[in-house]
């Protein structure tokens, strides 16, 4: 069995390789490395970010990762103003003009506003623009991290019901969408980092996953020989990320897809599990049950899941059928048992896919966080490419392996 792989070391190796490739005299753009935490109850993946400088003591915010988020940080306004260094952005200021086309000024106020897209609201959210300092860890070439402080444009909302998140877990979001004020975009403007980021979502609440913004994605020829990629599609109006899923296979057998279900799959970390259009979902359940060599649990089934099984024997190599999402270009995003079955109670696991109904409004499939756990996924906004690995568990490691910052 191969020795466990230190993922932090992989970040360092690629950072060094990139530095040598561009030449010793050219400064290497920084790579920003944030740790990710999984909340067991809500399946939210979040990071703790330090904002402001209240008497040299910043406020720590727990922020859910939102791939479709148009703002670097989105908070409730009564939370944002608790920082003594928070400043609202005024109308007609340079920062307001930089927000471009959809920035505006509210009646009876001089504060600049902006409609911001999120993954949890159907329409863009009405927000106010502000500035505060943020503390971000940079991965240095020797493997240690140092903290840098930057002035960040962020947004807040006065709509108490807008942030449909669990306040006891997170109090805002960190936005990674393709917009002018998302976190990757602002860091690219301020620090000349490439417009790309990589995620490694943790599967266990006891460990730390990672979000890397900039160059230095943890890919090496030795470990990630089976990296695959497909075109990354960005929705112009929302900044959300999509890929084309042309078909689904279970143990190599095609699952019949509704014509509308071909392609147009949104990638969303705020969706706990992958959501399918009804006809596709039912076809997948039928085929998975037919191929699974597990005892099915008949009653009671565990909502919202339909196909549940006894977990006894699932460690067998042939007990749990492999699911492949066949993407544009022919590559296969393989979903092994760790990402296809979720434990719901003692000795019971369920197929971790959900029925999204007959008429899913804006997309035919939503690829959720559970299916991405312990996979490395990279969003290259400059090359319009989405890159993904097979499960790291197959390589005797995980997204939580030695990722201590």
What does this molecule look like?
This protein is mainly beta and 405 residues long. It has 2 domains: 7-213, Cathepsin D, subunit A, domain 1 (Beta Barrel), CATH 2.40.70.10; 228-388, Beta Barrel (Cathepsin D, subunit A, domain 1). The chain contains 7 helices and 28 strands. The strands form 4 sheets. It has a 15-stranded mixed sheet that branches. The protein has a 6-stranded mixed sheet with strand order 14-15-18-26-19-25. A 4-stranded antiparallel sheet has the order 17-16-21-22. A hairpin with a 6-residue loop joins strand 1 and strand 2. The longest helix is centred in the N-terminal third of the chain and has 16 residues, at 7-22. The two termini are 27 Å apart. Mean pLDDT is 84; it is low at 1-5, 8-24 and 218-223. This is Aspartic proteinase nepenthesin-1-like. Residues 45-389 form the Peptidase A1 domain. Residues 1-21 form the signal peptide. Keywords: Signal. Belongs to the peptidase A1 family.
